[in-house]
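hey so i finally got around to running both of the ones u sent me last week. sorry it took forever, my laptop kept dying halfway thru and i had to restart like 3 times lol. anyway pasting them below in the order u listed, first the sequence line then the C-alpha cell line for each. didnt double check formatting much so if smth looks off just lmk and ill redo it

first one:
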Amino acid sequence: MTKPNSPITFPCGAIMKNKFMLAPLTNQQSHENGQLSDDEFNWLTMRAKGDFGLVMTCASHVQEVGKGFPGQLGIFNDSLNDGHKRLSSTIKEQGSLAVVQLHHAGMRTPSELIEGSPVCPSNNEKTKARALSLSEVIQLKEDFISAAFRAKECGYNGVEVHGAHGYILTQFLSSEINKGTDKYGGNLTNRARLLFEIVEGIREKCGKEFLLGVRLSPERFGMDIDEIKTVCQNLVNLNKIDFLDISLWDVFKMPHEEKHQNISLLEHFKSIDFKNVKWTVAGKISNANDVQRVLDNNVDFVSIGTSAILHHNFPKLVIENPNFTPNEVPVSEEHLLKEGVSKTFITYLKRWPGFVQ
C-alpha cells in the first residue's frame, strides 16, 4: 500500500516530500494588473505551511491578452517578478515545491478584461474570438517559454503548462475548435504541435533540473479520450517532462462518451506506460479514503482542490488520520477566513451551490 506521506523523486531530481499537490485554483484575488496580492500570498503560503508537498499557483497568464478571469495572477512580464520571488521563496521555506501554472485563456478570455478581441486557433463565432496568425502562434509559443524562464529566475522549482479545460492549448488540440489548415491544424500531430514545441522550448531554456509538468483534460471542449491518451503517451516518450496532471472533474466517474464506458476514466489513463514520468489526477478527491483509493490505483500523487480550501493542512490531517473526512459543506465564511481564504475568494466560491453558508 502506497503511503501518502512517502516522498517522490521526479526525473529532474526534484523531491516532493509527500503525495499531496495543491491543485491550481481560480480565486480572483490578485491585482488587475497581474501583480501578486497579499491575499493570494497568504492563501498559497498557508497551504505550504499545511504540508502540501507541491504548491501550485492559480493559472497565471503568459500574455496580457490571455487573461482568463478578474484578479488573475500574471507572469507575462518582468514587472511582476517581485511578487513571484516573494511567493516562491516563502513556499520553499516550508519544504514545499513551488510551481507556477502557465496559462492563456484564448477564446475563453472575457473581452471586457482585454483591449480587442479574444484569440483562438481559428475564428470562433460563438465567442467572437479571432484566429491567430502564424506569427502570433510563434509569439505565443515564445511567451510560454519566456514565462517559464521568468518563473525559474523568480526562484520557482518548476512550471505546469495548462493544456486543459478549454483554454488555448486545448483549443489547438480540439478538432472541434481548431479549423486551421497550416502546420498547427488538421491531424492530431499538427494540433498537438504547439504544446510539444512549448514543452521542448521550456526544457531547452530552463535546463534538465527544472520541474516541468503538463495538465490535460480528456473530456468537453471537443476533447477525445483516445487522442488525449495518445498525446500523454507521446509526451512521456518525448522524455522532456516530469509529470502529467490529468484533470478528470471526478476521478471515480465513468467516461461521458458511451463508446469509452467499458472502463472508468481513471482506468483509461492507468493504461498509459508512464515510464519514469510521474502522474497525478484531480477531481473530487475529498477525504483520506479517496486519497488512498487513488494512490492504490498506481497514481503517483493526488491534486487537492475543494478539501484544500476547507482545510489548509489537509495533507497533515490525512497523514495523521487515515479515516479523516473534511468539514461538511456549506461552511461558514468565518471558517474559510480562518483557513486563509480571502473575502474576494469567498465571493467567488459563492458561485458553487451549497458551498458557503
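and the second one:
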Amino acid sequence: MAIRNIRINGDEILRKKCRKIEKVDERLLTLIEDMKETMYKADGVGLAGPQVGILKRLAVIDVGNGPIVIINPEIIETKGSEVDIEGCLSIPGRQGTVERPTYVKVKALNEKGEEAILEGEGLLARAFCHEIDHLYGVLFIDKVIEEGVE
C-alpha cells in the first residue's frame, strides 16, 4: 500500500469526467487500498479517483462506520434537502455551505465486483453526492451558497 498525492484545485484532472471501470482486478484492489490509506492519512471522509490522478469511476468513503467502496456509482434516488458546510481534500483551507439531499440511494459495484444498493442519510448522503460529483469533474465550490462559513 502507498500514500498517493492528492491533486489540488487548479489541476485539470479534477475537472475531467471519469471512465467506467470494466473489471475489478488486483491492480484496482491495490488502488482502492492506496486510496483508503491516503484518505485516512489526510483525515478525510471521502476520496475519489481524480483526486489521486486516476480518471476512473471509483471513490472511497468513511464517515465513521468503516470504509465504503463505490465503483461505477449512480445515484438512483434522493429525498429531502439540507444545507451544511463542506470542504474537500483537493481544496485545502476552504469551506462553504452546499445544499445536498438528506437521503441518497446509490447503485454501485463493491470490491468483489458485485452490484450493491447503498443508502445514506445526513453526512453519508452528502459524502456520496460529493464524491460522485468528483467523477464528473464537479467540485463543491461549484455549488457553494455561502463561502467560508465556520
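quick thing i noticed on the 2nd:
The beta strands are 46-48, 58-61, 68-79, 82-86, 96-100, 103-109, 115-121, 144-147.
anyway thats it, ttyl
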